[in-house]
Amino acid sequence: MKIEMHSHTNYSRGKKILYDGVEPPEAMVRRAKEIGLEALAITDHNTMLGIKKAKAAGKKYGVMIIQGEEMHSQQGHVTALGIQETIRPGLSILETVDQVHSQGGVAISVHPFDIKHDGLREHANVCDAIEIFNGNNIDRISNIRALKFAKKNKMIGVAGSDAHTAAMIGTGIINTKTTDIDGIIKAIKKGRITPEYTYPKVTVLMDYAVRRLKLSYDYTWNYMDQNYSPAKKILGKKLLGLVNKSPGRIDNLFKVFAYTTFAGVVTYSVWRNNIRR
Asked: 127 and 230 share a domain?
């Protein structure tokens, strides 16, 4: 069975940019079916509001839906699979994992060494498993560090796309022989899974960034008004206004931004990790 363990719908929301995920649950489920996945975990940030619609779509397309959530603990992000109720953010990682286990779920440390420092880092070892591949860790180094950490601490390694659009689904999955949700949870805990992964194209990430800003346009504009300095506000609003010209010739400029950002992120990550040594 091929399983996507980490995906976000438009029920995932952010602070600076409102829409963190940009697709409705049905679009994510439909894409999973199109690429041959048999199960899809919905792991929206600090909410399970999208699960009901995802399950309805799962019945329609013949895709098993695994109930999940990505919680923001005090030490960093962790996903829970196989839970029944929302676990509130802001708890310690130990409290969070305890609540996951009390619901019969599995706790996974996601993007543990990401350059934004949203991951658990060394606290990852209290989880049942760790993402040795996260599709949004485009710097590569973050995933290498996670793999080394998993080997050092003898942790079970999994892969997750961290898909925020339908096009991202399937870049990081696991394979297992089991065919039901309880079996999947047990297989992860016992390490009876095989990760499979590849990085998403830079243009896919670019498309996501543009769509996210277009959907969050008014919210982001107001956020700039309330939080940015005058100079930063002027620049920020001019750049934000460019997304309304997409699709069009402006997309060529966005591609330059995307590849430049990619190169910068990789360079920064390599430099940072060399400094740490």
From this structure: no
Element (H, E) at 32: helix 25-34
Q: Which domain holds residue 143?
A: 2-200
Q: How many domains does the chain have?
A: 2
Report pLDDT digits (tens) over 115-124. 999 999 999 9
In this structure, are 87 and 218 located in the same domain? no
Same domain, 44 and 126: yes
β-pair partners for 67? 42
pTM above 0.85, yes or no: yes
Q: Are residues 209 and 221 in the same domain?
A: yes
Strands (E) located in the chain = 2-4, 39-42, 64-72, 77-81, 106-109, 129-134, 156-160, 172-175, 194-197
